[in-house]
């Protein structure tokens, strides 16, 4: 191939690549998705911790040594 043909080929490849980059550019969408997903995971863990504390407190309030009710 001559220099002119190679130059044309590289120019054509470069232009096609730039068109593809413009079409498939996500502008950080994957980073945003990861941040939102990690925030949701942290919130879910916090909710589970609050619920576990509430359930544990309710379970500790149950009196197991109470006498049985009298029969009528």
Brief sketch in words of this structure:
The protein is mostly helical and 72 residues long.
Structure overview:
- The structure is a single chain.
- By secondary structure, the protein is mainly alpha-helical.
- Helices cover 74% and strands 0% of the residues.
- It contains 2 helices and no strands.
- The protein has helices spanning 3-23, 29-60.
- The longest helix is centred in the middle third of the chain and has 32 residues, at 29-60.
- The protein is rod-shaped, with a radius of gyration of 33 Å.
- The mean pLDDT is 83.
Strand content: under 5%
| Total count of strands | 0
Structural class: mainly alpha
**Count of helical segments?**
2
Average residue-wise pLDDT: 83
| Percent in helix | over 70%
Integer-rounded radius of gyration: 33 Å
Question: Separation of termini?
Answer: 108 Å
Residue runs with pLDDT of under 50 for 5 or more positions? none
Q: What is the H-and-E element order?
A: HH
Shape: rod-shaped
The main sheet comes to: none
Structural key phrases:
single chain; 72 residues; mainly alpha; 2 helices; 74% helix; 0% strand; rod-shaped
What's the arrangement of secondary structure elements?
Blueprint: H1 3-23, H2 29-60
